[in-house]
Amino acid sequence: MNTHAIRAIYLFEMARTFRTLMQSILSPVISTSLYFVVFGSAIGSRMTEVEGIRYGAFIIPGLTMLSLLNESISNASFGIYMPRFSGTIYEVLSAPISYVEIVCGYVGAAATKSILLGTIILLTARLFVPYHIAHPLWMAAFLVLTSVTFSLFGFMIGLWADGFEKLQIVPMLIVTPLTFLGGSFYSINMLPPFWQRITLVNPVVYLVSGFRWSFYDVSDVSVEISMGMTLVFLVLCLLTVRWLVKSGYRLKT
Amino acid sequence: MQSVISVKNLTKTYASGLKALDNVNLEIRRGEIFALLGPNGAGKTTLISVICGIANPTSGTVLADGHDIVKDFRAARSAIGLVPQELSTDMFETVWATVTFSRGLFGKGKDPAHIEKVLRELSLWDKRDNKIMTLSGGMKRRVLIAKALSHEPRILFLDEPTAGVDVELRRDMWKMVRSLRDTGVTIILTTHYIEEAEQMADRIGVISKGKIILVEEKTALMEKLGKKQLILDVQHPLERVPEALAPYGLERSDDGLQLIFTFHAAHDRSKIAALLRELAELGIDFTDLQTRESSLEDIFVSLVSERS
Q1: Do domains B3-223 and B227-307 have the same CATH topology?
Q2: For chain A, which has fewer Cβ within 10 Å, the N-terminal or C-terminal residue?
Q3: Count of A–B CB contacts within 8 Å?
Q4: Whole-model pTM?
């Protein structure tokens, strides 16, 4: 295995994050903090508890997940799209590096950034809203698996996109609405039975539910199903990325 | 001599149906400078892209440094450095960072001393902390060369290395290429500048419409295909070339004041004396004479036009 190459890509991508600290870290942290200020401290104090949890604390897992999904997709899609756009991808393709190693470098860096971001958001949330983590290991597992899965998904988008607009389409038009409708701000038990059943088609429900369970021991679906679905998404993304990269889709002629 | 690149029956057809390479066979010798000439769209960059792993071959095999580029791609690619035609750089990175990145990408551990050596040789040392976006086009080209040399390749591909660079930089690059060859690196360059091939190459290959139409030692090629012209300025205008001089195939200038004798440099030298004697016998005096040798460019144009 060409570990030097994986390390080179990983460090290169991480360096890009630290070079654009405002955009990569501060911006999502500030915008998520604003949610905590508005829904947690300001409006949240006037709202009733959900599932026995203060509203401000209830939305922390969902908001963290919202940032995690968007940033994982954004980091990974931009990471692979930029060299394609600028033409520097020639160097990666001509290097003695396998497809698996290319994905490890780019997706590893994107997932690391998301985990870092998720951790900072959780620490920042503590400044505004008191909360506790009932199952820290499960929380870490959901954080890591979701970051890796959606970084893989972002990598696919980065391969597919042939313009900057397409990089934004999936996160803006699909992922954000699914996250908002996936129980980030409410429990799906609050919905009428028909909409509860419809909501279960939304994959983000399982991620938010499992993540929230790791904090407060309450969930919309059982944690085993949440973890199972997360692993299913991970495997699906892995297989699709493997197929795309191995076939040289939009990388090689 | 041992081949460092061996291309056998290589064909590349793009999804559009364009056959960019058509059953190409080519052997590049270890340690030589090989110039690949060809008009735009001839297949030069496609050939390099396939050898370097950027494009997939449709059929055929390529061995680089004895390793199959598909089955044993790691060993094959480790031996190769590529300087692409386009100035594709990470514009927000510093020179040092991007060259160090390239070394890692090719599986080599950190070696600041080697990176420093490469940057100094390319007059980039003073720019090592500059972002690439602040560099001139010529300097960016040097950065691409530094990236290609960062992992100490044994084979170096230079795809149009001096396109758009000034004369001074071009001369510097030629010097650098020769010094690399002296260290045992095999250089394959594609160029539009015939002068470049003429100055630098040991052997020349000509590609046209995806086919290699000629591979020859540069000196032998010029010897074999090179033509010379003897141009005689005559004292009085001639209305036509005298019948007696017909065997020489002379051309007459429009004003009748020049006779042009085209001969093959290797075989027809003896005819010059005979021609001059016959001119004297016919009473045609001349005031001046000059010779002109065909350049590699003339040879190239004639070869490509013959094929088309």
Answers
A1: no
A2: N
A3: 81
A4: 0.84
